[in-house]
Amino acid sequence: MSDQGTVSGVDFHCHLDLYPDHAAAIAEAEAARIYTLAVTTTPKAWPRNHRLTQDTRYVRAALGLHPQLVAERPDDLALWQRYLPETRYVGEVGLDAGPRHYKSLPAQTAAFRTVLECCAKAGEKILTVHSVRAASAVLDLIQAHLPPSRAVVVMHWFTGSKSEANRALELGCYFSVNAEMANSDRGTTLLATLPIDRVLSETDGPFTKTDGRPARPSDVSTAVEVIARVQGISFEAATMAIEGNLRRLLSSGTTSDS
Ligand code: MN
């Protein structure tokens, strides 16, 4: 990001390639000057995501291997490894121990462990991590296989406990927060305790809604409003904190921000 001063928002987790018109979704985020991390769910989507974001100033593509898809795509891990040198951004990766995916947890764990080991070996990576009903297991793997000096980990839509959040903070993790996370008392309570200097905003579009339709990066101010309200700070203060966090995160461990 060569022009951080002109960013008008941060959407650190959005599936731009799942909108009806992928290129138009990128163009819209770019025109709105929303720094957008365009996550993917399979490395098969990487070449197109990479190509479409090669010249964008605000949109970055991330190389993903979604835990919900790992079991049905056994060839994806090797492909993911092949593309890793092409990007600094990794995700969506992680574990999902929800009822529909619990059975594939051994395969998910093996794949996520390899992802972390490869990122540790490569260095200077930024990861957006899924941890549904698996926060402790995710943190165990990060602690064992990805030293904080080798990468920055952002916990996406974190729903773990307060003590798990504290553990993630100790491991240096950030948290990307969307508007729907405050829909439960538990989520609101957790959000209130996160230090603002570790918080980023996200939409997780198209999986969250704004005004009844899939959220887009330009809707990310709804997440910032939630963060400000729950933290008891102004919208402007939350915006400034998030942009400062983005700058710090992007500059960690490297002199280049591409
Ligand atoms: Mn997602």
Search tags:
258 residues, alpha/beta, five-stranded parallel sheet, three-stranded parallel sheet, 10 strands, globular, binds manganese (II) ion
Q: What's this model, at a glance?
A:
This protein is an alpha/beta fold.
H/E topology pattern: EHEHEHEHEHEHEHEEEHH
The radius of gyration computed from the alpha-carbon positions, rounded to a whole number of angstroms, is 17 Å
Query: Count the strands?
Result: 10
Number of helices: 9
- What's the shape? globular
The end-to-end span amounts to 7 Å
Mean pLDDT: 95
Side-by-side strand order of the widest sheet = 4-5-6-7-8
Unique ligands: manganese (II) ion
Description:
It is a single chain. The model has no long low-confidence stretch (mean pLDDT 95). It is built from nine helices and ten strands. The longest helix is centred in the middle third of the chain and has 18 residues, at 105-122. It is globular. It is 39% helix and 18% strand. The protein starts with 8 loop residues before the first strand and ends in a 7-residue tail after the last helix. Manganese (II) ion is lined by residues 13, 15, 39, 92, 204.
List the helices and strands and how they pair.
Elements: E1 9-14, H1 22-31, E2 34-38, H2 46-52, E3 59-61, H3 76-83, E4 89-96, H4 105-122, E5 125-132, H5 135-145, E6 151-156, H6 162-170, E7 174-177, H7 185-193, E8 199-201, E9 209-210, E10 213-214, H8 221-231, H9 235-251
Helix pairs in contact: 8-9
The structure holds manganese (II) ion (MN).
The site of manganese (II) ion has 5 residues, from loops.
